[in-house]
Specification:
Blueprint (H helix, E strand, L loop, with lengths): L2 H4 L9 E6 L2 E8 L4 E5 L12 H6 L3 E5 L17 H15 L5 E5 L1 H12 L6 E5 L10 H14 L3 H9 L2 H9 L7 H11 L2 H12 L4 H6 L7 E6 L7 H10 L3 E6 L6 H4 L1 H20 L3
Parallel strand pairs: 3-4, 3-5, 5-6, 6-7, 7-8
Antiparallel strand pairs: 1-2, 2-4
Length: about 290
């Protein structure tokens, strides 16, 4: 996406910076002071997904939100590295470049899978992990191999991104797409998702990620997650049902799963205050637990 075109109207643009860390040019938003929290959005979104949650957490923490490769304003320098493992590895390289070791990693949907992979592979893992409607499950049956194959075929067609951005890039269709997730998004949210879906490079980046998405190794490794994990879900999630997080919580050594009624896949956009309070209380409880005598 063209930063100059959207800078004036993009949430928290004053906190944005760009970092050339091979193979990508990363867009990072950095707000607040204190122990660092890293926010990772899901497929098809960007830092705008955390526009309301970020300031609430930044009142007491340093908060970094990053556009995943090929998404938003992060320019992908290697389409072949859009897999879960590739994104997690490149994200760790970015954090080393910035000089930040996050105490907490918060991920939404596919971003939760990236956050979990990072926690598993980091030399010094975070103190806590938060997954909001985490995408911890492959597609069922035929869709498990057919959908990634279709996404790969589409991503290889240089016209796909342009065609999709033109045909899907009107606000009525964007509104319908968001409603299918079970969430109610305000007019500002619709405007921002419209800007993303209307952009060819963002669509191509999303397709590349979907084409390479594999979760088998991550699912095998869930019993090795090294830190307390909070899994938040929306009861009405039309993209990833709460049962997926329930199953993941059963396999993660220290896990808490909470489901909210009348909320959907974009839980943190619908009710950022509740999500922020739950995250901060979770961190405070774990800090007290770590300081308690054996």
């Amino acid at each position: 996406m063209n930063w100059l075109k959207h800078q004036a109207s993009w949430p928290h643009a004053a906190y944005s910076s760009f970092h050339n860390v091979r193979p990508h040019r990363w867009h990072v938003q950095d707000m607040g002071e204190g122990s660092p929290i890293l926010l990772l959005h899901g497929a098809g979104a960007s830092t705008q997904s955390f526009r309301a949650l970020m300031p609430l957490l930044a009142a007491s923490h340093r908060v970094l939100a990053v556009d995943l490769p090929g998404h938003g304003f992060t320019t992908s320098g290697a389409r072949s590295r859009a897999s879960l493992d590739g994104i997690a590895e490149d994200m760790r390289a970015l954090l080393r470049h910035i000089g930040v070791r996050p105490k907490v990693v918060v991920g939404h949907s596919a971003g939760a899978a990236v956050a979990t992979r990072m926690a598993l592979d980091m030399h010094t893992p975070p103190d806590a992990l938060v997954a909001i409607n985490g995408a911890f499950e492959m597609f069922d049956g035929m869709a498990g191999w057919l959908f990634p194959m279709m996404a790969k075929m589409l991503s290889l067609n240089p016209l796909t991104g342009m065609i999709f951005s033109v045909t899907a890039g009107n606000e009525a269709r964007v509104r319908k797409l968001l409603q299918s997730t079970g969430s109610e998004v305000d007019a500002e949210g619709i405007r921002l998702y419209h800007a993303l879906i209307s952009d060819r490079s963002h669509v191509e980046g999303t397709l590349s990620m979907m084409a390479q998405w594999r979760l088998e190794r991550l699912l095998r490794d869930l019993p090795k997650v090294p830190c307390p994990t909070l899994l938040l879900t929306g009861e009405n999630d039309g993209a990833v049902p709460p049962s997926v997080s329930e199953a993941a919580a059963a396999r993660i050594p220290i896990a808490t799963h909470i489901t909210y009624a009348n909320r959907g896949h974009l839980l943190h956009e619908e009710d950022p205050e509740t999500v922020a309070d739950r995250i901060l209380n979770f961190l405070a409880d774990n800090k007290k637990g770590s300081q308690a005598p054996a």
